[in-house]
Fold:
Amino acid sequence: MAFPLLFLLFLSIPFSQSANLSLDYYNKTCPDLDRIIREAVTTKQISNPTTAAGILRAFFHDCVVDGCDASVLISSNSFNKAERDADLNLSLSGDAFDLIVRVKTALELACPGIVSCADILAQATRDLVTMVGGPYYKVLLGRKDGLESKAERVEGNIPRPTMSINQIIKMFMSKGFTVQEMVALTGSHTIGFSHCKEFSDRIFHYNETLPTDPEMYSKFAEALKKTCANYTKDNSMSAFNDVMTPGKFDNMYFQNLQRGLGLLASDHALVKHRKTKPIVDLYASNQTAFFEEFSQAMEKLSVYGVKTDLEGEVRRKCDAFNTLKT
Ligand code: HEM
Ligand SMILES: *[C@@H]1O[C@H](CO)[C@@H](O)[C@H](O)[C@H]1NC(C)=O
Ligand SMILES: *[C@@H]1O[C@H](CO)[C@@H](O)[C@H](O)[C@H]1NC(C)=O
Ligand SMILES: *[C@@H]1O[C@H](CO)[C@@H](O)[C@H](O)[C@H]1NC(C)=O
Ligand SMILES: *[C@@H]1O[C@H](CO)[C@@H](O)[C@H](O)[C@H]1NC(C)=O
Ligand SMILES: *[C@@H]1O[C@H](CO)[C@@H](O)[C@H](O)[C@H]1NC(C)=O
Ligand SMILES: *[C@@H]1O[C@H](CO)[C@@H](O)[C@H](O)[C@H]1NC(C)=O
Structure:
């Protein structure tokens, strides 16, 4: 009887997702890690307040496309079109990539060749969420950087505002996330912004009879129409995801949804669908509940599909594999 049990134990260890990850992974090899990341993050966020949202979104996109392995940081070259340049036009923020370069440079001086870009991305995201008012949660360390980054892996793994709530739920479920976790994570839209083309249908081409979604608060819709009047010519035009407290990580996003102040069609849909509305209402009325569940969901997201040991490497530069791939 003991033999098969032991056999099963041996089998299950190497496949466990957070196998070798720990809080003190770099305690001996890079003892100043926490301070170095925190200082670089603070400096960057103060000079560029959009960094926090940019990196949170980049981290989400990294993780849901084949795991939190820094594959989103890889630059394309003539042999390979990388994740960050997917046709989907992710418009990931340049500040996020710039911050990673800064942190990596500082860490390479203090402890060369030790800290993975995937760990930097995970911990810098946590530090920034906390810095803009969000909860502190634990980030396990020991991820390796992935050996692949392919633009074609993006479509189908990243949710789109045009998707129905059922489709979004299905996408998160396929990665092991519950409806509650999906709603909590999407509370990230309490910071940052969206480009006009991501919500232009809601204000200009709602349906054949109405240009504007009648469920959108009318003054909000009017203001967005002004902001986006030129969006087809000037594609940099954008609006805050949380119009009330755009730079602060709080539960205002959920309160906005209840008042028709949701920006994306998928945001507004969360307060309409019978499976997600009760969760929106809970988070809108209780920020503590939102913060607790967001923290747990972020801890789970942060170890999603991580690579350890020989499944990856510690990159010398975060935007390139150590060996040129042809
Ligand atoms: C429910 C499904 C989701 C959809 C359809 C969605 C879609 C989008 C879109 C279209 C944008 C605007 C991008 C742009 O125009 O630059 C955006 C921004 C953002 N998303 Fe999501 N998202 C979803 C869930 C999430 C989750 C789970 C997270 C984090 C864990 C997240 C974090 C962010 C952040 C922080 C921004 C602002 C980025 C910035 O300001 O640079 N989103 N999202
Ligand atoms: C990771 O864990 C495996 C098995 O548990 C072990 O063989 C390996 O040496 C560990 N690697 C590191 C870097 O700790
Ligand atoms: C070592 O790791 C623990 C967490 O496990 C942490 O509390 C402690 O401060 C770390 N020590 C150093 C020197 O970084
Ligand atoms: C992405 O952006 C480029 C240049 O900004 C544009 O030519 C292309 O049509 C866009 N692709 C999609 C799918 O939106
Ligand atoms: C457009 O939307 C409105 C409000 O939801 C609805 O009453 C109307 O029937 C829709 N028109 C068409 C053509 O679908
Ligand atoms: C729209 O674009 C035109 C020409 O490109 C410019 O003159 C005008 O100021 C723009 N309006 C807004 C609101 O950005
Ligand atoms: C808010 O949520 C927290 C955490 O779930 C809970 O302990 C607290 O009782 C809730 N507060 C109210 C007023 O319901």
About this structure: The chain has two domains: 5-158+305-311, 165-297. Confidence is low (pLDDT under 50) at residues 1-17.
